[in-house]
């Protein structure tokens, strides 16, 4: 599993995930538990949808 989520993308995903999960935990709608997905993809640095659409926000490592 190669990393395909870059720095800003990770920060936004983790922030959105924490926000949605907090909202769900505080009595928000049940669909807010979907915040697990952006939180996990941000924490792991891999989004399974990105390879399918040919996207990669992780900066290239130069040798």
Structural commentary:
The chain has 63 residues and is mostly helical. It has one domain (7-53). It contains three helices and no strands. Helix 1 (7-25) packs antiparallel against helix 2 (36-44). The longest helix has 19 residues, at 7-25. 16% of the residues are buried.
List the helices and strands and how they pair.
Elements: H1 7-25, H2 36-44, H3 49-53
Keywords:
mainly alpha, 63 residues, 3 helices, 52% helix
How would you summarize what this structure contains?
By secondary structure, the chain is an all-alpha fold. It is 52% helix and 0% strand.
Helix/strand-derived category reads: mainly alpha
Question: Spans with pLDDT under 50 lasting ≥5 residues?
Answer: none
N- and C-termini, Cα separation = 20 Å
Number of strands: 0
**Strand content bin:** under 5%
């Amino acid at each position: 599993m190669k990393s395909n989520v870059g720095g800003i993308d990770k920060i936004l995903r983790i922030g959105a995930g924490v926000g949605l999960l907090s909202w769900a935990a505080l009595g928000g709608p049940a669909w807010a538990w979907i915040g697990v997905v952006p939180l996990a993809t941000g924490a792991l640095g891999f989004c399974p949808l990105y390879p399918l659409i040919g996207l990669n926000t992780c900066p290239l490592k130069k040798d």
